[in-house]
Specification:
alpha+beta, 7-stranded mixed beta sheet, 3-stranded antiparallel beta sheet, 22% helix, disordered C terminus
Length: 253
């Protein structure tokens, strides 16, 4: 049992400690470093979850999809992109396995980097060096004679026939054979999801509010999709004809 003198000493020490902050040995450096490590760790976890492909979401690496597309200026379609990019294979084609055959059709074979929630329109633009953003539509030298259509220099006629400042817009149809079901986007075009086989898209620079048509290739998308189907395989485009024993083509994989 503590003596009276010892009890008084304990009481005096307790009184002196009131209001004083507890400090880690070495100052505040260690807890600061630990806090930074924890924040960075949580950030990496969130990034990994967002960037990793969801293998249960189509298109998978086994899918072979076709999307009708066209570039549209004011009131008419521009030429389709040219070059299949697979012979010789471009670095982008090797990475994504996404390309076209001069036919107004995106052939989406979907590598691991272009599958699931990574299947976005920007991969197709990147493969051909085309830029489509709110500032305009810009082609590289090997496409459409290297023409550029910045909104600040482009005037188009509106529904009343008056020339107004053009606007970049992408019209997306869920099905190539249903022109009544569409949505219009006016920004963030690179992140448009490729989430269905047989979609149709028109990349337009036109007057706001005007009607923008489906791309011409939508009219015969199933037939165009056959260009790189393996013999004896049915095209995956919804509503396409049976292609069993179809003639062999060598346009690309």
């Amino acid at each position: 049992m503590a003596t009276g003198s010892s009890a008084k000493k304990v009481a005096r020490l307790a009184q002196k400690g009131k209001g004083k902050k507890v400090r880690f040995q070495g100052g505040t450096l260690f807890p600061t470093v630990m806090a930074v490590v924890i924040v960075l760790g949580l950030g990496l976890v969130v990034y990994a979850r967002q960037s990793a492909p969801n293998l249960n979401v189509p298109p998978t690496a086994n899918d072979h999809w076709h999307i009708s597309y066209g570039f549209y200026k004011c009131d008419a379609f521009l030429p389709n992109l040219v070059g299949g990019k697979e012979d010789p294979p471009s670095p982008e084609y090797i990475k994504y396995n996404v390309h076209s055959h001069d036919d107004g059709v995106i052939h989406w074979h979907a590598s691991a980097l272009a599958a699931g929630n990574r299947a976005k329109l920007g991969l197709f633009f990147q493969t051909y060096g085309v830029k489509v953003n709110t500032d305009g539509i810009f082609f590289p030298e090997d496409q459409n004679n290297g023409e550029s259509y910045p909104v600040e220099d482009t005037k188009c006629k509106d529904a009343s026939g008056k020339e107004v400042d053009a606007q970049v817009q992408v019209i997306v149809w869920d099905r190539y054979d249903n022109s009544t079901n569409s949505r219009k986007l006016i920004t963030d075009f690179n992140n448009i999801r490729i989430d269905k086989d047989g979609m149709a898209m028109t990349f337009a620079i036109a007057a706001p509010g005007v009607d923008i048509p489906m791309p011409p290739s939508a009219a015969n998308l199933p037939e165009l999709g056959l260009v790189d189907m393996a013999p004896g395989t049915a095209t995956t485009v919804p509503g396409s004809p049976d292609t069993t024993n179809a003639p062999t083509t060598t346009a690309g994989e």
